[in-house]
Amino acid sequence: GGRDLRVGRLQRQKVRVSRDRMLESALKVFDMAGAHRMVLEVEFFNEVGTGTGPTLEFYTLLSKELTQRALGAWRDTEDPQSPPALAAATTTATAAAATADPVKPAAHVAYVYAPHGLFPAPARPGSFDADVAGASGGSGLTRRDLFRLLGRVVGKALQDGRLLDLGLSPAFFRAVSGRTLALADLAEVDPPLGRTLGQLASAARRIAALRRAGAPEAEWRGVMVGGAAVEDLCLTFLLPGDDAHELRPGGADVAVTAANLSDYVDAVVDASVGGGIARQIEAFRAGLGDILPSPALGVFTEAELDCVLCGQGQAWTPELLGECVTFDHGYTAQSPPVRALVQVLCGYGPEEQRSFLRFVTGAPRLPPGGLAALQPRLTVVCKQPSGGGGG
């Protein structure tokens, strides 16, 4: 006779975390050996919710915390939609957070604006293992801690089928997979800097060609960049946007000239997408390896990784909602309140849809497959008024 096949239930690791100390709580959770092997189920202190909802919300909140501007972990730019006064206020609030009581979250926490995807900010020499100042709810953190935590979070989200609210750059995944990044990748994550460096690199190639051909010094030194001689650009060997990051010892006092322009371009590219982010990538890989085999991300394309990790958007129509939403306990698809709800949902834009999904499921986007893949299914029921006295 044949044997019965029995499939054991997945073991679950239940943990409680503090909303006010999200990063600190996450570091402790992912240091637990059980969290690496079992399905993680999260509850919040002093709250009654349990199960999938709070767990998804944990990943959503943690994703947001990992993009605090005060951490200095990501390339960042000002949001063009933010009024100048608001930008100044958030900058002031971020600075104040550095001295605030770590038990209480800052009244205003500024977050990174990365329209081309999150990509690590270059680490200055000696800064990688220094404490990060101003981290809300996570004192004593270093960049190494943050990127190792991020690797563990990504690995656990893939392992448990959870969603993150992190728009990581495709170039970041390429770096994690072991590819050597170049100027084209930098142009993808920072287009303005990429365009400027592209012009400088083109000029450097012209200069090199003239020198190889034996052109007079005056000729190759006269190569122009945007209508100006290289020396007239008044550049020094500092990383653009960070006057404290020298590209070579004493770089603040080394002028960029026609003779060393190529060295300058190479140094900026290396600091931005090479050696300057190598330790962040290494820490991420180490964290990922604590949860999943190192080559795990290699089975996905960059677009697939974004979809699997962060879910997908989806245009909602009455037909789609009728197929994917369950109406029960007194409601049918033709009930007037249901038809009104469907009309409202179909009119939602991307941000309203994100807010609705976060409210209902705990995550701001749908899993791969959209509404049809949502588990448990979205269910709308008729809630009768409680209490006596009819009406």
Main β-sheet: number of strands, strand sense, barrel status? Answer: 2 strands, parallel
Q: What is the rounded distance between the termini?
A: 64 Å
Q: Widest sheet: strand order? A: 1-2
Rounded to an integer, what's the Rg over CA atoms?
26 Å
What's the number of helices?
A: 15
Quote the average pLDDT.
Answer: 85
Helix-strand sequence: EHHEHHHHHHHEEEEHHHHEHHE
Percentage of β-strand residues: 5-15%
Helix percent reads 40-55%
Tell me, briefly, the overall form: elongated
Structural class: mainly alpha
User: Total strand count, please?
Assistant: 8
List the uncertain runs: 85-107
Could you give a quick summary of the protein structure above?
The protein is mainly alpha-helical and 391 residues long. Helix content is 43%, strand content 8%.
Structural account:
The protein is mainly alpha-helical and 391 residues long. The chain is 43% helix and 8% strand. It has 15 helices and eight strands. It has a two-stranded parallel ribbon with strand order 1-2. The chain has a two-stranded antiparallel ribbon with strand order 3-4. Strand 5 and strand 6 (242-246) form a beta hairpin. Helix 7 packs antiparallel against helix 8 (191-212) and helix 8 runs antiparallel to helix 10 (261-273). The protein is elongated, with a radius of gyration of 26 Å. Residues 85-107 have low confidence and may be disordered.
